[in-house]
Each structure stands twice: as structure tokens, then as C-alpha cells.
Amino acid sequence: MRFAAASFALLLTALPWNTCAFHGSRPFLSGINNGVTSSSGATAVWMSAVEEATTAETESPSTNPGDRDILVRAARGETVERTPVWLMRQAGRYMAAFREYSTKYPFRQRSETPEMACELSLQCHRAYGMDGIIMFSDILTPLPTLGIDFDVVKGVGPVISTEVRNEEDVANLADAESVDFDEKLPFIREILENLSKEAEDANTSLIGFVGAPFTLAAYTIEGKSSKACLSTKKMMMADETDESKAMSQFLDKLAIMIGNYGIHQIECGAQVLQVFESWAHQLSPAWFEKFAKPAAQKAIKIIKAKYPDVPVIYFANGGSSYLELQRDMGSDMIAIDWSVDMAEARKILGEDIPVSGNIDPTILFGTKEQIEQAVRDCIDKAGGPGKHLLNLGHGVMQGTPEEAVGWLVDECKRYKGKDA
User: Fold this and answer.
1) Which residues contact 319 (CB under 8 A, 6 or more apart)?
2) Which of the 8 DSSP states describes residue 133?
3) Phi/psi zone of residue 35: left (φ > 0), alpha (ψ -120 to 50 degrees), beta?
């Protein structure tokens, strides 16, 4: 069934996207945008084609009761019956089915229209059967709740127009404590509640995620992706000398908002949360410890205070040079990037710290044998089957062969250890 989602997506080209709403693994026609409807004849023909394609190609959900929460249990640090797997950017442009949307509709339209966001979240799970469904969204999505405007421009990436450079700018942002996420981001509840039902039907888990405070601060300050992150670092230096406390104040405001946003996702159905410190590679160990770490800890503490049993994973992309500083993040699990050997990461963190990761995503451009060996090596170095949560050490790259993702997932689920 590896290409079921791709075949399914090709059917969508016959009708406008806004005539399709997705429930279970089946679409039905619905006037969800500007009153668009379709004739009964067209509906019947299209539904017949969809039914034929999905019946032939869609794999049945897992019937193993343990699969429903194996990812959740692993994220809590429990030893589980096999190594579970999900992939960062598992919903992404490497899939032809995904590109049917990404080439036609702007990012925010896709991520903020529940029907599209749900479909994009589900495509990869239908095709490959990872142990979790992750909401298709972005770490920048909650920024407008504070009055920070952004867009995602094709070929450029995120662009933020709201300037935050001094204490007055921070003070002019909305109050983080009083954000009403249902009012400001109404689509999040609908997306997660629908995906929660889908995850239950598919006998799997639902993953939510947030951006860490430093990463969101840096994106906002720089206004877009940045190689040197110079404006942000100047603000950190000004903060150190007490010339301006804007950086500390901004991080604190973001930590409160992010913590409450994580709580909101849990209340909408998320069973696991991952905190993405996507710009950790911009930080020295000293600046991580002084600025990024306390802010991330505060956000995580807010989440765990309200929902102590919901596991939180912390991922510092490019932060392997200071893994020892991540032992006490307050999260249940540390996700490790691909630039450190898994066995070495285990030594640095200690056997009592649950981990996820950390296969180099470029291995997915290799042979089936190379991919399967990378899976086995990673599992063995993490302690053996059931001792960690398998993931890549970064997201699935654009251009990755679709069948390669299937080989990785299948081998992870199959592997019983080198002594088996």
C-alpha cells in the first residue's frame, strides 16, 4: 500500500479542494467554502473512483492493542514491546500526495483549513503506518496570539513583519497569560479533535508540538531565517550588560504563551508533545544555558504542572555539543540530532534519560540495505528494541524517495534485536 496516498491524491485534481472534507480514511463532498457544491452525478462518479482506489490500496489499521499507545509509553521512558517510530516532517513534500496541495495552496491556507490540515497529517500514516500521527502545522502558528504577524513565502520560508527589538516592543505585545486560543486559533481545536478520532480509529497516537521560546524569539527578531542570527545575539549581549532586558522579557512572554498553547493542544486531543528548539545550532553552550534553557524549562513546567502524565519531548536541533546541559530540561524525553553517535549520546545523558532519534535523514537516499542497517544500528546503540523512540535526527528531506520511508518504518517494527 506504499503509494495508496499518492493514488488517492490524484483523484483530488478532478475537483476543487474546497469540495472535500475528510472523515476516517474516506472523503465526502461538502460545501465547506463559499457554498461550493457538486452535482449528484459528479459526486457519484468521484465517490465510486475513490472507493475503488482506497478499498484496493488502504491498509487496515493495526489490531494490536499495544500499538495504540506504544509511542506514548516509550515517550514516558517505559520499556516497550518493540521500538516505536515516527519521523519529523513525516507529513512533507517528499510525498507526491502532499505536493498535490503544497504546489497549489499557500502554507497558512493548508495549515489553518481543518479539512486540508487533517488530510495532510494523515497521508503519511495511511501510507507507512508510523506509530503516531502528528498535526500538520508550524511552530510559528501561535505567534499571532501575541500580535506577531507572519507568513510563509514559497522559496523564502517564514517571514515575520512585526518588529521586536526593545523593551517597548515587547511591552506592546499581547498579554501571554490571557490568550484565548479558541478565539485566536479556532482551527487548532477542530484539527486536533478530528485527528484524535482518526488516531483512535487507526489504533495509534496523536502528537502535538510547539516551538521553544528562543527559536520563536529568534525567528521574530530576525524576521526570517538567518545564518548568523546577529540581531538576536546583539539583544542577548545587551541583556547581559543590562543595557536592555528586552530579550529576557520576550523569552518570558513566549514561554508563558507556549506553555499554555501546549496545554491547549493536550485539551484538544494531543497525547504527546514535542518542543522544537529548531535554532539551537545558533547557540553556544553558555548562551543556551543562560537564555534558551530557562525559557524552555518554564514552558515545559507550565505544561507538566497541568498535565503531568502527558509526555513532553525536547529536541534541540544542533544542540548535541551541549547534551549534558539537557539532562534537567524537565521533559520526559530528549530527542537527539544526527550529529552525535547514539551510543555516545546515551553515555552523555545517562541511561536514566529516555531518548529519541537519531538517524541521519540523508540515509533515506541510500539503498534498502543501508537504510535497514542504519535502523538496526540506531536501535542497538540506544539499548536494544523497546528501549527508545526511533526518529530521524532532523526532518525528512524534500526529494526523499517515498519507498525509503516505508523501508525505515518496516524495519523498525520488524527488528527484534541482534541476538534474536
Assistant:
1) 277, 280, 281, 283, 288, 326, 337
2) E
3) left
- Amino acid at residue number 276: F
- Cα separation, 207 vs 192, whole angstroms: 9
What is the rounded end-to-end Cα distance, in angstroms, of the chain? Answer: 28
Long-range contacts of 240-245 (CB under 8 A, 24+ apart): 240/290, 244/166, 244/167, 245/167
What residues contact 243, with CB distance under 8 A and at least 6 apart? none
pLDDT, one tens digit per residue, over 22-55 is 333 333 333 333 333 333 443 343 344 334 444 4
| C-beta of residue 323 within 8 angstroms of C-beta of residue 340 | yes
In this structure, which amino acid lies at residue 283? L
CA 304 to CA 33: how far, in whole Å?
Answer: 38
Residues in the chain: 420
**What single-letter DSSP state applies at residue 36?**
-
Residue owning grid cell 491547549: 264
DSSP label of 289: I
Instruction: Verify cis geometry, omega within 30 degrees of 0, for the bond prior to 18.
Output: no
Question: Which cell numbers hold the place of 349?
Answer: 545523558
- Secondary structure (DSSP) of 348-389: HH-TTS-EEEEE-GGGGGS-HHHHHHHHHHHHHHTTSTTSSE
Name residues of the chain where pLDDT drops below 50. 1-59
Identity (one letter) of the amino acid at 383? G
Q: Please report the pLDDT score of residue 65 as a whole number.
A: 82
According to the model, what pLDDT value does residue 61 have? 63
Tracing cell 533515506 back to the chain, one arrives at 364
pLDDT at residue 153, rounded to an integer:
86
| Strand ranges (E), 62-182 | 132-134, 150-153, 157-160
In sequence order, the 6+-apart residues with CB closer than 8 A to the CB of 158 are 138, 140, 150, 151, 152, 219, 224, 225
d(CA 58, CA 225): 38
Task: Provide the CB-side half-sphere exposure for 86 (13 A, CA).
Answer: 29
d(Cα 214, Cα 237) in Å, to the nearest integer? 14
